[in-house]
Amino acid sequence: MNQYPLWKNLLILGTLLAGLVLALPNLFSQDPSIEISAARKATMTAAGSDEIRAALENAKVPFKRIDTLEGGKLLVRFNASGDQLRGAEVIENTLSDRYRGALTISADLPGIVRALGLKPMNLGLDLRGGIYVLIDVDMESAVDQSLERYVEDIRTQLRDAKVRYLTVGREQGKVVLKFADAAARDAGQKVIAKEFRDLVMASVDDGEAFLITLALTPAQQKEIQDFALQQNITTLRNRVNALGVAEPNIARQGDRRIVVQLPGAQDPGRLKEILGATATLEYRLVDTEGSATDAEAGRVPVGSRLYHDREGRPVLLKRRVIVTGDQITDAASGFDAQSGTPMVSVNLDGPGGRRMRDVTTENVGKPMAVVFIENRTTTQQVDGKPVKRTEKVEEVISVANIREPFGKRFQTTGLDSSEEAHNLALLLRAGALAAPIQIVEERTVGPSLGQDNIDQGMLSVAIGFLAVVVFMAYYYSWFGVVADVVLLLNLVLIVAVMGLLGATLTMPGIAGMVLTIGMAVDANVLIFERMREEIRNGNSPQASIAAGYDKALSSIIDANVTTLIAAVVLFSFGTGPIKGFAVTLTVGLIASMFTAITCSRAMINWYWGGRRLKSLPV
Amino acid sequence: MRQINFPNLDYMSQRWKALVFSGVLIGITFISLAVQGLNLGLDFTGGTVIEVGFQEPTVIAELSGALEAGGLTGITVQHFGSTREVLLRIPPSGETNNAALSQKVFDTLSAAADGKAELRRVEFVGPQVGEELTEQGGLAVLYSVIGILIYVALRFEWRFSLGAVAATVHDAIVTLGFFSLFQFEFDLNVLASILTVIGYSLNDTIVVFDRVRENFRKIRKGTPLDIMNQSVNETMSRTVITAGTVFLVVVALYLFGGETLRGFSLALIVGVISGTYSTIYIASNVAVLLGVSRQDLMPTPKEGPGVDARP
User: Fold this and answer.
1) How many CB atoms lie within 10 A of CB A343?
2) Which of left, alpha, beta for A470 (phi over 0: left; psi -120 to 50: alpha)?
């Protein structure tokens, strides 16, 4: 007799139920939608919702409905992506600058599904449309910039120590110092050994020239590169938010690359303008006499200007600029030696340092602010013609009290967390010394192509599935039907696991699914062929079921493991869509081992396992 | 019971013919690769690809004419799936992406079609990225072959491992040769497909080897060639049926999956055919040529407890 113990049956049933529930959200339609949020943390009011409704009806753009989301956002749902694009125009014209609309897709889930926190699979850019950009950060320049700062510092130190040198320069990733004689060189060596302990020093005498070469340690180089990458990611995050994209994804890839994915975005030109924005900084004194609230009402004191910080709160600053970003030579986060609290240390160049000393001496105890300024060029269509417009975005990123007069080097303390310190340092550098970036790969997929891809992909899944199902039922009779049922369960499990892993479904991913359908039945084919052989050899039906499963097992495992090896290699070498393919293939292989071996056995045991059989329906 | 009856054939007697046939296929591949190479896609060469959808069917000559009239030269224009869709290729020029150029190309075409055109896709790949992808692709194939070689050697025996890898590499080469000979575009998807073929072909081969191992242990008489023959025959119906189901879905993918997956599914079609052939004729063949014998597959007695009790 072939029977599974109760716990095994329950376990299988439980797994399948969990799979079904997890896969459930994917059954609901994914609506093309527009997410509307307020730019300055304000909330969308019911009035805003009515206004949009009226505007859309007025322009005769059909829409499904308007939902209110958490966080004071609105979601306008459409039935077709064409309506969505027309709706976006209408909404843009209706809403003031304070609100922002972003194209997105949103599954129309019933309340109970949403309450369980279930989400459908993420769709890749090739399926939902959007922009993918791979950015290369110029690491050589980042290292050069850092060496250049050392060159400046070394000159100053040598001058201060009254050591005579011929030249200090940057050559092939090293700082090279030239001296007229050995005595001067030795004196220089002493100064440098004292002041720049972190550099690798070597002295060379080739005939007449007396040289010292200074190189960065590998650890330092790595640190500089990591920082350059981090800093670019931070600034990109800031800027991409201005693009009006619902779920931008910016991530590091490898040692020097950044991947930017903007689902729903359609205008690569605009993205490039945003990426090409230049940033700078200004240190200004805070106007403590004037009132920021009055200023916001329009009464700005003479000699002051109204700014906002990142949370949208008004800050009144003096018009006079103390120091600008190009005078900053370095900024780094760390911990204050005395209090142990997070801090950011800033270095200024000579003129900047002198000016800072003058201003801070006069203003001890008063607050000083840093303003982050970005110049963005945007092209807009006015009467059908492109018009370039330069937009200046200014934000106060830090306000701190001047405790004592300071000059070239100073620290900003009193920051809440080391993360805040880190971000401030990144922004300070972004406004001063950004490593150059370059777009090395860019892919834009229109929304209609994305929809076509989904439709074609699903069609081929359906047809492939149907063909296999019909064949299996025909060739293996009732056991073939069992194989068909577990094949369907296999698909459900793939979808469930993909959702659970937060994996992204891409076009090659759909291909992976189709392929899994074809290969997943292999395990059942192996088992059923074994059963037939056992029967031919004269074994009893029940013994043949058991032998079929037992003897086919090692073949199934060996065969799947080798395919898994190929899938894992694909995953580690592939990027983007190919990774998606590898993930689906891997998930599919593992799910198919579970369904084809365990689930099919459970079904066969349950129906046929306890009976006296004359023959097997295989 | 519905069943295809496979005649019990002496596959191994054909082994020299099969080797010659495969040798010829591989020879053709190498000659084709040397003479005309692969028609590498954007992913590997770098450059820009633009896909434009029109509402009306288009004529290629008219579109190229419109582009040339607009001073845009060196752009290849071709239909993509239907006459309403057009694919344009702009060769790489320098390191930077000329967004203005692709916009100009689209505007020119859109004007030629009275504005009834839609930009469906723009892809730019820098030459540097292309080089990296080529390198990574080669490494990916290499590493997966090495990984498989090790696994099979551990599970079976080194002669089997070499046989399986020979069959697998054979399939990868044949698929590559097919793409080179007919100059189908070779892009990242096709590369992924070749890696899948490697996985599939191996899957197929392993099942036969599994049976060979079992038969070597079970049947005490007969030469290795006889055992191989018997094993191939016993697994024949499974080989054909699995190849059949995979073939069904891959053909569905080729016919209905759209233009983006055409290359991918084509490579799989070729791979599945070649994989089935190599499973029958190449894998066991190589193992026999390398002199595999019964002793090599007997379970080695382990020390201590847990000794394998089977004969």
Assistant:
1) 24
2) alpha
**How does pLDDT run across A577-594, given as a tens digit for each residue?**
677 788 888 899 899 988
Higher pLDDT, B1 or A258: A258
Distance CA B110, CA B166 (A): 52
Q: How far is the C-alpha of A140 from the C-alpha of A133, rounded, in Å?
A: 21
Per the CB < 8 A criterion, the answer to whether A410 and A356 are in contact is yes
Query: Which CA distances in Å does B122 have to A229, B53, B97?
Result: 26, 12, 11
pTM of the entire predicted model:
0.77
The reply to whether residue A456 touches residue B234, judged by beta carbons under 8 angstroms, is no
**Same domain assignment for residues B51 and B94:** yes
SS3 (DSSP) at B5: coil
Tally of residues, chain A: 618
Domains defined for chain A, CATH in brackets = 6-25+446-609 (1.20.1640.10), 29-108 (3.30.70.260), 140-220 (3.30.1360), 277-439 (3.30.1360.200)
ipTM of the prediction: 0.84
Return d(Cα A483, Cα A479) in angstroms, integer: 6
Chain-centre distance for alpha carbon A191: 45
Q: How far is the alpha carbon of B107 from chain A, nearest alpha carbon, in Å? A: 13
Q: Which of B241, B273, B279 to mutate to test the interface with A (most CBs of A within 10 A)?
A: B241
The total of other beta-carbon atoms located within 10 Å of residue A517's CB is 30
The answer to whether B2 contacts A475, with C-beta atoms less than 8 Å apart, is: yes
Contact A562 B129 (CB under 8 A): no
Token couple for B193:
């497909």
Chain A residues whose beta carbon lies within 8 Å of the beta carbon of residue B206 = 555, 558-559, 562
Query: Is residue B93 one of the residues assigned to a domain?
Result: yes
Q: What Å distances lie between residue A267 and A250, B72, B80, B116, CA to CA?
A: 17, 22, 23, 19
pLDDT in tens, A511-552: 888 788 888 888 999 999 999 989 888 888 888 988 989 988
Over range A19-36, report the average pLDDT.
84
Instruction: Tell me the pairing of strands A504-505 and A122-123.
Output: parallel
Q: Which two tokens stand for residue A586?
A: 């891997």
Which residue in A179, A615, A145, A231 sits closest to A430, CA to CA? A231
Same domain for B59 and B134, yes or no, is no
Share of chain A above pLDDT 70, in %: 92
Of A521, A526, A566, the CB nearest to B199: A566
In degrees and rounded to multiples of 5, residue A134 shows phi and psi of -110, 125
CATH number of domain containing B180:
1.20.1640.10
Q: CA of A583, closest CA in chain B: separation in Å?
A: 12
B114 Ramachandran zone, left/alpha/beta (phi>0; psi -120 to 50)? left
Q: Which residues of B touch A450 (CB under 8 A)?
A: none
What CATH number corresponds to the domain at position B99?
3.30.70.3400
Count of the separate structural domains present in chain B: 2
What are phi and psi for residue B80, nearest 5 degrees?
A: -130, 90
Residue B305 pLDDT > 60, yes or no?
A: no
Q: In terms of residue numbers, what domain contains B110?
A: 47-125
Tokens of B185: 């575009």
Contact status, residue A579 vs residue A502, Cβ threshold 8 Å: no
> What are the residues facing A129 on neighbouring strands?
none
CA distance A127 to A125: 5
Are residues B205 and B68 located together in one domain of the fold? no
Q: What is the mean pLDDT of chain B?
A: 84
| Domain co-membership, B19 together with B69 | no
